[in-house]
## 1
Amino acid sequence: MKLLVINPNTTQAMTDSILEMARRNAHSNTTITALSPEYGPRSIEGHFEETIAALATVETVAIHRDQYDGFVIACFGDPGVAACREITDKPVIGIAAAAMHMACFLGHKFSIVTVMRRAQPFMEDLVRQNGLEAKCASIRYTDLSVLDLDADPRRAGRDLAEAAKQAVAQDGAEVICLGCAGMGLLDEQIRSVVGVPVVDGVVAGVKVAEALHSARLRTSKVAAYAWPESKELVRCSPTLIRAAHR
Amino acid sequence: MKLLVINPNTTQAMTDSILEMARRNAHSNTTITALSPEYGPRSIEGHFEETIAALATVETVAIHRDQYDGFVIACFGDPGVAACREITDKPVIGIAAAAMHMACFLGHKFSIVTVMRRAQPFMEDLVRQNGLEAKCASIRYTDLSVLDLDADPRRAGRDLAEAAKQAVAQDGAEVICLGCAGMGLLDEQIRSVVGVPVVDGVVAGVKVAEALHSARLRTSKVAAYAWPESKELVRCSPTLIRAAHR
Amino acid sequence: MKLLVINPNTTQAMTDSILEMARRNAHSNTTITALSPEYGPRSIEGHFEETIAALATVETVAIHRDQYDGFVIACFGDPGVAACREITDKPVIGIAAAAMHMACFLGHKFSIVTVMRRAQPFMEDLVRQNGLEAKCASIRYTDLSVLDLDADPRRAGRDLAEAAKQAVAQDGAEVICLGCAGMGLLDEQIRSVVGVPVVDGVVAGVKVAEALHSARLRTSKVAAYAWPESKELVRCSPTLIRAAHR
Amino acid sequence: MKLLVINPNTTQAMTDSILEMARRNAHSNTTITALSPEYGPRSIEGHFEETIAALATVETVAIHRDQYDGFVIACFGDPGVAACREITDKPVIGIAAAAMHMACFLGHKFSIVTVMRRAQPFMEDLVRQNGLEAKCASIRYTDLSVLDLDADPRRAGRDLAEAAKQAVAQDGAEVICLGCAGMGLLDEQIRSVVGVPVVDGVVAGVKVAEALHSARLRTSKVAAYAWPESKELVRCSPTLIRAAHR
Amino acid sequence: MKLLVINPNTTQAMTDSILEMARRNAHSNTTITALSPEYGPRSIEGHFEETIAALATVETVAIHRDQYDGFVIACFGDPGVAACREITDKPVIGIAAAAMHMACFLGHKFSIVTVMRRAQPFMEDLVRQNGLEAKCASIRYTDLSVLDLDADPRRAGRDLAEAAKQAVAQDGAEVICLGCAGMGLLDEQIRSVVGVPVVDGVVAGVKVAEALHSARLRTSKVAAYAWPESKELVRCSPTLIRAAHR
Amino acid sequence: MKLLVINPNTTQAMTDSILEMARRNAHSNTTITALSPEYGPRSIEGHFEETIAALATVETVAIHRDQYDGFVIACFGDPGVAACREITDKPVIGIAAAAMHMACFLGHKFSIVTVMRRAQPFMEDLVRQNGLEAKCASIRYTDLSVLDLDADPRRAGRDLAEAAKQAVAQDGAEVICLGCAGMGLLDEQIRSVVGVPVVDGVVAGVKVAEALHSARLRTSKVAAYAWPESKELVRCSPTLIRAAHR
């Protein structure tokens, strides 16, 4: 399949590491492209940035929807996923949902380890929106920013491994989900410290997209993700206006 | 207080009726302005449109954040509310959250009556995100579109009243929340048919904004709604770039 | 509006501070009266006292139901609120429900800080009864009794601020609800220590009552809060017998 | 054991049928007394009446707490149970809680069949307060009043059996709980129609009280049901004042 | 009644202590027999062992179903209970469900104290399956194995009491459930340290079985526990083949 | 990968259709084998049969655990999955869990359509155990038995399609999960009638197993699925005794 991995964070180094994780774990007959939207925040750490990135992601899917067989949204806030599912019926997979659902097959409960405190309530909402409260042991945050992951990977890995250890020791976690698209290359370091499976969302997203594509399963168009209603989009970009039509 | 009511649906007739409902129910010392963002869909019925409207709403709050004491987001999907709360600490109130919380003081459970089927799962997510599942008896939909409300208010009122009656008779609803910003002027018609309190979100939003302002309660900045982190917003509008700075 | 604030704790000093908080935060066109029932415990810290206070509160509303436009029940156990709603259709607002719902507009989750340990399970039930489990980060208790709040406000403020700090640091609270009607005057002290919004239930109760009154929203009479059925009340007070009739 | 069954509804015919059900199902070494409080409503169908009955029940337990080994509160709203548990450490069992917990051993889910519509939200709260939402298939109401049960038992049995059949056929109920203390003598009639176990709360309450007494299990005094704090009860009855002291 | 207590752990010393607890707490007219299945693990600490024990327990009930009036499954994982309920309509009571439901009458919330860590997620599932999440404060584990309980009861009692104390002090527990059938004889030791009611599942199981038998309440056969469908059981034991027929 | 699909129902025709569905949807580099345990019920429709099948499935995994890279348990009750995960760290996937998790990527909520009524409570437990209550719209049953699926596929397809249509029209389902391993070949028939994605558990199970294997994700051994403790298994089969050792 031809799979487009979109990094809503407009930072090339992060897109590079996402692409590396995706390619390492893709099937041999999957072709992966990774890119960022044409605009948006360097990194996504709050709702303001996520709201910009969500629209930018929708525009990116709109531009490429005919060229690819599926889409992975590589930010652990799953920005724009619901909207993207309306403008295509091909698989659109958020890495947070993918990581959490995959984690459910690996242990009794998972914890998410992530960047700064403001990410915690954000991810609590995400867990609830996916209906997975009962399987989420905790969301542990650190002092890291998203861009620290690339700037100082050693420290990042150490801090995340420490958070993961506490999740396993104190919260009942049996699996760790990495709570940011830029953490994938740290997975082995964390796993070796904490001794439980570590799920990178990018990897999980690729595998879920491949699975759905291979099983010919497409997004339901009966309600939540029906094609957009026909209407005027006042002063919106041509991309969005085209996207609104099937 | 000076209160800005933002209608994320870019339809003037709807903005007019929203303003009328807001003014009718505001305190005498509240000054209400109502407007739509500079761009966006004529009406919001799905995630695609909501994603556009969310960013347009954030930009609108960004432009006006120093001129007003509080903001009501007049679309029953509460688009952009979380993001707006990051760029100001003044009250930012979504009408869905406002209607649902106010309804809890009026009866044991509320139902939402709304437009077409695709709105139902959307609002289920909203109920869950607000943590009010236990108080929501049902979400009943009709065949109406958002713009039908203005185009044929008689039919709209009749269909919504019928949905409301079923919610009361079969689902255990004791209060009805009107599930669209454009339904306010139908409240008396529906109330007279169904015999239980009918809560318009615009009214509820104005009252909650006034309440918080009067009590000098401002948005918590400790985590979920902290001011945006400092970073580059690539190719974003000057409005957004300014908004990112406190 | 004419608003009656009932302090179910029969302690005048507490009623005085409740009145002060209510008046400070009321709209200019709201007239506030505060009083205690004619009988009942000096303070309410358990179910036994709450059961007495609930009936005393109902009798108090019964006596005054024609003289006022709304009622605030100023005890963080919301004693008798459901019963009072049956004997009037004007707003009857419990301060616990009011504080918790208002807190939902200010941050992602709230914690309650309260008096002695026995209050904790009591308030857990209250949170559940209001269906707000998902928004309540924790209920933190101290060694204080209700009457300690007035006897030694400095210590009370310090202990509550400490509990609030732990709620923010460890439990994910972004807003603090003061878990007793007698804590209002400590709000600034606590807010200055903990750095997040602090919601006093009396203030919240007054604002919600004003909001509903202004929006002409009255209690639903379709089921949970229908007028009492006609029947004999054996050896009950004349007040109660009259209250049973609309 | 010596067991006191308190009927908070002050109707002798109902107390008689409660006593009959209790005695039929008690162990041979259990002595049952049944009585009503000295005051209160003839029947309990709403919160107003329940609030009166709760205090009357507490006074009744207070008067008799030294003469009996356990107490069953025979009203399906469990009025005053929490308060009664504070003034004794002997078992105090509400028939609603008893019926629901016992039903859990008999089938996958239970439904409650009860009197008029206003009882439904009341019992929904009760189910939630007992934490049994996941085991309650539905609460089905009829047009009956509490006193209709005695006045026209044939119709009552027929209407309740019909409600029970619908609960089994449509809601997934496998067990039926009778949602009023006065329904016990109808159990066989309903069971023969509906073909699933029918649990009378009075019977369940007696069995649970016997079970706890026999196992020497007493109410925990560490928090929720600790002995009342020492304090003045202003203008309360001598019975209540004595009750407040262990 | 004639009650069969089945210890799915094939360790005679454990069966002996279970029998002692059961007899101590049974009514005078209850005759208790205790035995283990003919095969199975010495102790049950995980799902693998539980799966073996479940089938062994079913076979044991199958063999004895006509000789007894009820069955208690004395392992805190309730192995095979649902299956056993299909092949008889007499009470089949798992000690975990019995302990948890009884605990609900004794305090606001219970905690379970149990053996090694792997038991914790197992029991979390059990709590959820019984729908009692809201009443379970925590599940605290120790370093003990099941067989340590008999081998070194002093240490076991001390470690469990310590876990129980933490549950009461930190988790809000008001009642302790002993999370293994072999802990019953430690109940007094733990209760004296922790000061709250301690519920042994064997005792609770016996009391619930007696209660249901006395009230002539039998398992519902309408769905979840209907008699097995008629069909071939390939290469299964004669006991199982006979069990499949009513 | 070498994947073993185990059909716990000992019916060859069903195993054949399972194998066909598995092979149709497997990646080209996956080798699928399908077989039934050496003993067990012809079909699984209740807990009694499921308990037998669970142990038979564990023995089957035990025998083959070194020859395969992963295991799919092809019965929509997921019998023995937890136990199997203890005796290997390779993926062990139950088809119910796989279908439900995959369905979450395709629509807002899924419904399960299944055989006779007794399957409904069984599957409700399964949904809860997987923590997916919020995503499950309903479980609709028919009059079919498991073996009817093969005996009269036309009727089976028609009845299941009818149940699926009701789930979509009345319950809010957007995706249909086929609630039995023997329904796979009916997927197209049902999809064409109901117009939403139809997920066969066998297909989902194969895709999830492939995904985890490809991503080198293995079962967590820290608690719930740790290797069995060392102990005597009295009179158990040599297969089980060997299985207990890593």
## 2
Amino acid sequence: MAFQYKAPLRDMHFVMHDMLGLESLYQQLPKFQDTNRDLIDSIVEAGAQFCEGELAPINRSGDEEGCQFDNGVVTTPKGFKEAYAKFVELGFASLAADPEHGGQGLPPTVGIAFSEMMGTANWSFGMYPGLSHGAIRTIENHGTTDQKETYLTKLNEGTWSGTMCLTESHAGSDLGIIRTKAEPNADGSYAITGTKIFISAGEHDLTENIVHIVLARLPDAPKGTKGISLFIVPKYMPTADGGVGERNTVACGSIEHKMGIKASATCVINFDSAKGYLIGPPNRGLNCMFTFMNTARIGTAVQGLCAAEGSFQGALEYARDRLAMRALTGPAAPEKEADPIIVHPAVRQLLLTQKAFAEAGRLLCYWMSTQTDIIEGGVADEEAKKAADDLLSFLTPIGKAFLTETGYEAANHGVQVYGGHGFIREWGMEQIVRDTRIALLYEGTTQIQALDLLGRKVLQTQGAMLRNYTKIVHKFCEANKDNADMAQFIAPLAAINKEWGDLTMKIGMKAMQNPNEAGAAAVDYMMYSGYAVFAYLWAWMAKVAQDKIAAGEGDAAFYQAKVKTAQFYFKKLLPRTKAHAEIIEGGVDVLMDLDSEAFAF
Amino acid sequence: MAFQYKAPLRDMHFVMHDMLGLESLYQQLPKFQDTNRDLIDSIVEAGAQFCEGELAPINRSGDEEGCQFDNGVVTTPKGFKEAYAKFVELGFASLAADPEHGGQGLPPTVGIAFSEMMGTANWSFGMYPGLSHGAIRTIENHGTTDQKETYLTKLNEGTWSGTMCLTESHAGSDLGIIRTKAEPNADGSYAITGTKIFISAGEHDLTENIVHIVLARLPDAPKGTKGISLFIVPKYMPTADGGVGERNTVACGSIEHKMGIKASATCVINFDSAKGYLIGPPNRGLNCMFTFMNTARIGTAVQGLCAAEGSFQGALEYARDRLAMRALTGPAAPEKEADPIIVHPAVRQLLLTQKAFAEAGRLLCYWMSTQTDIIEGGVADEEAKKAADDLLSFLTPIGKAFLTETGYEAANHGVQVYGGHGFIREWGMEQIVRDTRIALLYEGTTQIQALDLLGRKVLQTQGAMLRNYTKIVHKFCEANKDNADMAQFIAPLAAINKEWGDLTMKIGMKAMQNPNEAGAAAVDYMMYSGYAVFAYLWAWMAKVAQDKIAAGEGDAAFYQAKVKTAQFYFKKLLPRTKAHAEIIEGGVDVLMDLDSEAFAF
């Protein structure tokens, strides 16, 4: 009875072609010059077929069945093994991977488009290839030639998978206090000992080998974050001929019983003097990881988009079908015993919120991803690369935190539109809530992202990264200031763009007196920033849509809906910034005044 | 590993005695004159022991095991039967029930205090006795003497339980379109035929009989809500000696697989010419139910309070224990490898939000309930009863919708404080999210409550109910306008109280032109109203706390924490009204402009 996922191809085309002009962008990027519109569309089309036909049908059943653990062996739910084999066979594992090591060398944004569809159809499934990404990037960026040759092709083609082993039971956000040890062996390898938790795809039955990237401490390592090194620890030792040899002393101790993403195995992994190989310089492990953190976090931002898109599709279908009450203005479907609930303003508010979040979320993810295209596209212009990198750095914590927060809200709206049926598992709406709840926690919680945004990205650059961004918006406002159709968007957008800077200044001044001021403001500042970014994205979409309508190009109804959704966004969602701004003004004292002992009696 | 529930007795005493002065209130209510403070406290203390000792320990296991269905028979999870027997034996079923029919005749508020503890310890368990309430009130208010004698004592003592059979698969919020039929039998009874869904406690193994109150249509009934009648349909026919006789043709067809409250059986109930007895006048069934809807809905409001309280307890414990990072102002616990996370402003914001919601929610539930005490307390003063009834009517949709929305938010904050561990079932935090998600749906969704508030309670009374309420607040502001310590609360409270009226006026004017304006404003108006009500409750609590501190009475640290939490509320939560007010100003057009077909392409 669960809704049937359909890839939102029309809107994906809008974002990729009308908004971001991927084809002309790629003509300027040496590495991606062959990626034309036809190629992009055909890959996306094939991806849509695979996600709709193979992944969506095993989403509900995967949730019900979950992963099974038996004496170190993890079995994925029915159908996952077959779907994964097809995923590898059809080449979806290697879309954006390096052609030197088995990849197809497509731009990251093409991979993100596929990720969106995969994640909406079946987020749990997507966790398995998704986690390989971190391992691949680590080896690409910091591995020796030997390490690259041994691991990358297998990982890129998907016959092996990877993990990132960071968290320990006492150390999540605070990796500085991890305890896993790495002791040198005589042969130059290391003996890794310790227990990691929350290891997604840590053990499963989809691939012939699993390559763990493990954070651990060398014997002489300094305390804290500056004493952490990275190691490659394969489940089976690779053989010279590219196969797998003897089993390493790394084993899955158990899997977690979770709220959601139940078909994704979340493992406790025990390293018992497991053989590992240092990757990157000693004690610089965290820095090595930061080099690709931004690109990896786009993947989690996508989960927010997926939750918004999936729950919107389900809710819209139900709202058009379900009959209850009459419209307040009189019967809309007098031939039926009641009106479809989409006539009710409160239901429309839920649906339009989902729609506005999904569509701006899509543009944000793909736009962020095009910055990665530019960074990796082999362009000679260092300034352009730097600008892309700065923009991506600034947008990353917003994308990760704001899209997952709004995605979670949208998922809850999906349940709400279904009424009591939303609470029943077979309808599929509550699963989206459960699956996507993790997105606000892993890869750095909302609170951690907020500190990254306000602390590292904004205040530590003396506002430079924010100004770089608001200049883009300012330019847009200037360019459209005489456009009468755009006035409804430009005035509030210019106002929020200015207020954002003023607010930042005020926080910065206060934080110089008391660093807790930044901590107190951070989450509201991040949410404010998210709404401000979405205001620009909606104004930008409205502009492109209006131009298309004026030029008589394409389907006018589609573009008119864009303009109307932008109007909804500015009237019904952007005002939330008012609350966040005033809460920030409320300052830090009311947060810090209460002693820990006085919270409860 | 899940946190251990402790009844928040200190705060319950504050609300019952310092704030509401239950003992002196009851001295003015003839029916409750014997209910003095000692009696209240001893019942609450016994209730706390039962809930902490018997119900909390089977909360996680009940969630994991769930109810089992086998060929019409429903088995509750391990320990539920024994706990229920003890619940009946200790007299908790009959606390506030009518002494003429086996009840202890205590004031409703004493029952609510027990409900809070039961619901926080184990919401699923509380659903079984909770659902009897509706059946009892229906029979009390509308039953014949015979019906009362046959059913009430058994229901009150808890050896039988009751249900409310309203929903059908195509009819939830819109009861006007139900199809279940009632055809007269020769003996004066009726043959009830139809299928009801979402029947909580519809079938289970806790009691020897189940008494269904069923909404159905007589053969000649008018269409819509004016053609619905109420019937008593027992699972087993009562015998003359108070036992149970032959099985009626009513049966459980299946149970739902749900997101949460898994230990509460949610049943499909099939009536196959089941024998039923008309209760109340024909075709007036919905009106009969409305007579006690307000009191019943307090029960659901309590669920919001429970979610806030339970998740706060769990999160506070974790935030004090869990070590991660250092305080931004320097190490707070230098002897440890990191600081407890309660030092971080963002964590405190989550905890204080939970605390502010839980404590104001408690006061709101108990305050609403004292209106029921007054209505049912046998007082002669009809005006006082009318005032209590009006206040209760006005507060009910706010209590139901706002407390469940804020309770859900608080539950999510509980997960967030735990980080990744919040997503793991054994810690118990995600269960609160899943269990309480239903509270926003059943007993009228948030959207339905919002329409009830703005449409029926405010606009249909030309604002009279709102003015009655804002007068209470105005009086409070006047009384404290010269109190320097209260100025920080009185100024914003008076402002919001006035703005609320102005906002209502504006909506009323617009709704006269276009009824959809009310629909468009309703949910934001309800949320705005909730924050406005909480502002009064926090100012009121601060006033009482300040008086206690000034008088040197009681534990100063407790009262100081109240004042500080009030300060937090005014600076960090009340500003959310700014967003709701501006969203309401955004009007209806952006909600209605988009055609149903244009929501997606």
